[in-house]
């Protein structure tokens, strides 16, 4: 693995940082959070037209840039640093790869160019409480996580004209505003149950959506009701849906790990700047040895998480899976850095006007969405068979 960035990768990062610094400052971010969609459409248009970010990891055949998930992850480190609120995670990281992996040629031709250009946004309609399970990050995804019937969730029913969906998905990333819903639904009844993915326009008849109040306002979520909605099956009925979800989950974990590292690094930067200015007993508090030691510990944790996230991003582009463990390490670093930011900012860190609480809420929201950390680690250890009994004889003392 070559840890140095290519000129193209470095160019994407620098161009994206410049754009976000000019278009996604504290005032712009707060203004975007108060909009119905929860993000600034002008920023999304700029990300699409100037940098091609929505199509960065999509093939050139479908209007994408043709880069790998590594470049997308590095770009998301910058969006995490700025806490940029956009449809990037829901559209580019979760929905688009599933359409590319499972969609028929006609569906790819119809949808991927619009997703790559940013003209169409999409959301994976899976209840947020089981999203990590659906993506095989905290356990196997072959169970009944999609719900259906009395278990809640979404149920699919075949008719003479196609498929009909009914049910509900809560805590769907951008579910209230996405132009296209990729809905995970249970079909087959109680005798032959299985999970399939369906395509539903956001404005289809029978779809009722509402924005939810969330811990992290920079990641807007919606509640999606489906009331006997006409839907198209994504791909073929025999497709390996759980396998595609697991592969997408590992890539999403690598991308989210880089994003979390970006947020953690920026929170640490802001804290270091603050302790260098704030004085107590006639000297900056950053000169106190105890403060230096604590921030040094945070720095080491963030750098270790960055190394793990970079490796996971590289591995995802080379057919290996390391996203879950890297995400666990990144989420822990993000939580530590944001908590220390509030602690060292003192009373200022608790105020609504300061940004410190936004980084802390992003850390909490990410762990609720695709965690918690201990389950990510436990699943990674189980997948690697780390704690299985070896052939050696156990010695009891």
Low-confidence regions: 391-397
User: Using DSSP, what is the number of strands?
Assistant: 9
The rough form would be described as globular
For the residues shown, what is the average pLDDT? Answer: 91
Largest sheet: 7 strands, mixed
What does this structure look like?
With 397 residues, the chain is an alpha+beta fold. Helix content is 49%, strand content 15%. It has helices at 7-23, 26-33, 41-51, 69-81, 88-102, 105-117, 131-134, 241-277, 289-317, 323-345, 356-370, 373-383; strands at 122-125, 154-159, 162-173, 180-187, 194-201, 207-211, 221-233, 279-280, 283-284. Strands 1, 2, 3, 4, 5, 6 and 7 form a 7-stranded mixed beta sheet that branches. The protein has a two-stranded antiparallel ribbon with strand order 8-9. A hairpin with a 2-residue loop joins strand 8 and strand 9 (283-284). Helix 4 (69-81) runs parallel beside helix 8 and helix 8 packs antiparallel against helix 11 (356-370). The longest helix has 37 residues, at 241-277. The protein starts with 6 loop residues before the first helix and ends in a 14-residue tail after the last helix. The model is unreliable at 391-397 (pLDDT under 50).
In short:
This protein has 397 residues and is of the alpha+beta class. The chain has helices spanning 7-23, 26-33, 41-51, 69-81, 88-102, 105-117, 131-134, 241-277, 289-317, 323-345, 356-370, 373-383, and strands at residues 122-125, 154-159, 162-173, 180-187, 194-201, 207-211, 221-233, 279-280, 283-284. The termini are far apart.
């Amino acid at each position: 693995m070559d840890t140095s960035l290519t000129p193209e990768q470095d160019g994407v990062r620098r161009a994206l940082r410049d754009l976000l610094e000019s278009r996604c400052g504290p005032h712009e971010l707060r203004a975007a959070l108060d909009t119905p969609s929860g993000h600034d459409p002008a920023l999304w248009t700029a990300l699409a037209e100037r940098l091609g970010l929505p199509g960065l990891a999509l093939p050139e055949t479908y209007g994408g840039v043709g880069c790998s998930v590594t470049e997308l992850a590095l770009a998301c480190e910058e969006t995490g640093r700025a806490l940029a609120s956009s449809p990037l995670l829901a559209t580019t990281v979760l929905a688009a790869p599933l359409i590319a992996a499972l969609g028929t040629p006609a569906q790819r031709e119809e949808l991927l160019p619009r997703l790559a250009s940013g003209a169409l946004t999409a959301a994976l309609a899976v209840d947020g409480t089981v999203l990590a399970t659906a993506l095989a990050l905290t356990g196997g995804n072959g169970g009944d996580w999609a719900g259906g019937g009395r278990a809640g969730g979404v149920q699919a029913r075949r008719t003479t004209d196609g498929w009909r969906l009914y049910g509900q998905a809560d805590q769907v990333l951008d579910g209230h505003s996405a132009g296209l819903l990729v809905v995970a639904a249970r079909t087959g009844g109680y005798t032959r149950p299985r999970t399939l993915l369906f395509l539903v326009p956001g404005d289809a008849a029978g779809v009722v959506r509402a924005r939810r109040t969330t811990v992290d306002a920079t990641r807007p979520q919606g509640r999606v009701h489906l009331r006997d909605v006409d839907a198209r099956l994504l791909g073929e009925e025999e497709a390996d849906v759980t396998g595609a979800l697991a592969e997408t989950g590992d890539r999403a974990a690598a991308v989210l790990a880089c994003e979390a590292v970006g947020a953690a690094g920026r929170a640490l930067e802001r804290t270091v700047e603050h302790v260098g200015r704030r004085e107590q007993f006639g000297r900056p508090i950053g000169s106190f040895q105890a403060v230096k030691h604590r921030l040094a510990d945070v720095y080491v944790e963030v750098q270790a998480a960055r190394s793990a996230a970079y490796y996971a991003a590289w591995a995802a582009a080379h057919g290996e899976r390391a996203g879950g463990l890297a995400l666990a390490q990144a989420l822990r670093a993000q939580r530590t850095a944001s908590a220390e930011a509030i602690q060292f900012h003192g009373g200022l860190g608790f105020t609504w006007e300061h940004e410190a609480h936004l980084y802390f809420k992003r850390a909490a929201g990410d762990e609720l969405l695709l965690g918690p950390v201990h389950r990510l680690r436990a699943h990674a250890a189980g997948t690697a068979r780390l704690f299985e009994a070896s052939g050696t004889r156990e010695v009891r003392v």
